[in-house]
Design goal:
The protein is an alpha+beta fold. It has one domain: Ubiquitin-like (UB roll) (Roll), CATH 3.10.20. It is built from 4 helices and 4 strands. Strands 3-2-1-4 form a 4-stranded mixed β-sheet, covered by helices on one side. Strand 1 and strand 2 form a beta hairpin. The termini are far apart. The model has no long low-confidence stretch (mean pLDDT 81).
Length: 127
């Protein structure tokens, strides 16, 4: 299964859209996701036609302690991992974090949570 997934990913990276150099005049998209064994993210930008072009990929395995986290904690960990990994691209620039976890989207955008306020102030972006 994992070999087939690897081959599919390798093939997908060889056709459009492919990696591009970044444009500092455009905002960033940070796609974050968690899965059973790890977290991953993609940093990308939209071109003039609205097509998404990846700039950087990142992933890591979960530690034995992190494997015991709830789904929401896994998804939150994916966001934190992504922000740490791509911070040198994101600081001072507009960015939108994209996650498929609706509960986490609600929690992060809730205005009275202290950590979400800090996160948004740091990012100058949206989730």
């Amino acid at each position: 299964m994992s070999r087939r997934a690897f081959e599919q990913l390798k093939s997908a990276l060889q056709v459009a859209p492919i990696l591009r150099t970044l444009d500092w005049n455009k905002s960033f998209l940070v796609y974050c996701d968690a899965f059973g064994e790890g977290v991953g993210s993609t940093l990308s930008q939209l071109d003039e036609d609205g097509h998404d072009h990846p700039i950087h990929f990142a992933s890591r395995q979960l530690t034995s302690i992190e494997k015991n986290y709830t789904v929401t904690e896994h998804e939150g960990l994916a966001i934190i991992f992504s922000l740490k990994k791509f911070h040198h691209y994101l600081l001072g620039y507009k960015a939108k974090i994209v996650t498929n976890h609706k509960a986490l989207t609600y929690l992060v955008n809730k205005p009275n949570l202290k950590w979400s306020t800090c996160l948004m102030a740091t990012l100058d972006g949206k989730i």
